[in-house]
Amino acid sequence: MSEQSIGTLEHVRPDASADRVHEILERDGALIIDDLAPIDTIDRIADEMAPYVAATPGGSDDFSGRNTRRTGALVARSPASHELIRHPLILDVTGRLLHRAKSYQLHLTQMISIGPDSPGQQIHRDQWAFDFFDFPADHHVQCNTIWAMTDFTEENGATRVMPGSQALPNSFEHTVDETVPAEMSKGSCLLYTGKVYHGGGANRSGSVRAGLNITYDVAWLRQEENQYLSVPRDIAEQLDDDMLRLMGYQLGAYALGYIDDVRDPLDAIRGGRGAMSFGGRAR
Question: Pairing between strand 198-199 and 68-72?
Fold first, then answer.
């Protein structure tokens, strides 16, 4: 990596253009969009998720964080989170980054609450979730966000990032010394690719560091969070078609993901009987 890429995590304003955000994301693998979410939206999500967070146990191993709670199913549990899941700037940039695929989908939704006295997480790539498949260096399959539910500081465990690391080979040997903290204010958003090395920071403060990890992947890959089971049918029936498609009720590629007699996956929720072509358009 260049000297510049090792030490730089660029911040942009919330009115930055999708062109500019995508340019930085392609170059550095990560950036921060300051104050992208209204504080009242963040507070509503926190209120909606509070009982579920309280019921979530700590992680079962060091990687997930034994003093870290990972609470999912945001689509079902937090209507206010839909504003962030479908944020137009984020979806625009995601579409640009994952442009080689026919479509993309919601990969996971998770509120991550890192408790006090938590050690830092191993530096890793999120795309390793796909059984450590070695995707080509220039082929992006994931676009990820972490929204700050609290201020992120180096002391309270701000996510550690290696800007510019997306082109490096796979390695388990990277250390926190090669990273910078993604310090940002409540309501800001860390946007990063599935290739960039990063990890949750060590929380040396006396308070919980909370963030929303909302990620997207190309629709021909399996989702990390199973949206079809995380979101009960009675809730799914109340969602609009665009949200359902984003959750995965669509073809992921040519003929990939139809139901029974070559029907649109949306028919499973809407009860239709319309046949569709393998190209993905109803007919």
Answer: unpaired
